[in-house]
């Protein structure tokens, strides 16, 4: 039986792919004053929104999460409302 398999698959061991050199690390953009101010502003906005979300009840948080998931699944489109009187 093994002879059959050797004949079928050539009886050779698979060759490994040649190793690729590791990618070169990309240089980070320099931290300018404008960039630092932009990052600080983004952190402030994030903290403010985080405080709003922290005050939600568990039920409201679950509703918000489910609505966000549906929005991502629908790619921002409103879901179609199926009316019972429509026939296909």
Q: How would you describe this protein?
A:
By secondary structure, this protein is an all-alpha fold. It has a domain at 32-76. Helix content is 52%, strand content 0%. It is built from three helices and no strands. It has helices spanning 2-9, 33-54, 58-73. It starts with a helix and ends in a 15-residue tail after the last helix. The mean pLDDT is 81.
Write a concise synopsis of the structure shown.
The chain is built from three helices and no strands. By secondary structure, the protein is mostly helical. The chain has a domain at 32-76.
Layout of strands and helices, then pairs:
Elements: H1 2-9, H2 33-54, H3 58-73
Mean of residue pLDDT values: 81
Number of strands: 0
Q: Figure out the total of helices.
A: 3
Shape: flat
Whole-number radius of gyration?
A: 28 Å
Low-confidence stretches: none
Which structural traits does this protein have?
88 residues, mainly alpha, flat
